[in-house]
From TrEMBL:
SUPFAM superfamilies: CO dehydrogenase molybdoprotein N-domain-like (SSF54665). InterPro entries: Ald_Oxase/Xan_DH_a/b_sf, Ald_Oxase/xanthine_DH-like. It comes from the Eukaryota. Residues 1-10 have a biased composition (Basic and acidic residues). Gene3D superfamilies: Aldehyde oxidase/xanthine dehydrogenase, a/b hammerhead. Residues 1-29 are annotated as: Disordered. PANTHER family: XANTHINE DEHYDROGENASE. This is Aldehyde oxidase/xanthine dehydrogenase a/b hammerhead domain-containing protein. Signal peptide: none annotated. Residues 11-22 have a biased composition (Polar residues).
Length: 73
């Protein structure tokens, strides 16, 4: 018995054609992965939540006020 069933995922990514006479140094119109793409795809990327906490580490949060120049009590 399967607990979860779903169809296989399918995707398609298309890029515009780059003219063959365009120099390889000219990146206009070429698909270029961003710098962290490989690490994100392989799971090697380090995110804030992956970094161990320090003893007595300070946390903060943003507090929005519904009133301008109001006192926070």
């Amino acid at each position: 018995m399967k607990l979860f069933e779903r169809d296989d995922s399918k995707s398609l990514q298309t890029f515009q054609e780059v003219p063959s006479e365009q120099p390889s140094e000219d990146v206009v119109g070429r698909p270029i992965p961003h710098l962290s793409a490989a690490k994100q795809a392989t799971g090697e990327a380090i995110y804030c939540d992956d970094i161990p906490k320090y003893a007595d580490e300070l946390y903060m949060g943003i507090v929005f006020s519904k009133r301008a120049h109001a006192k926070i009590t």
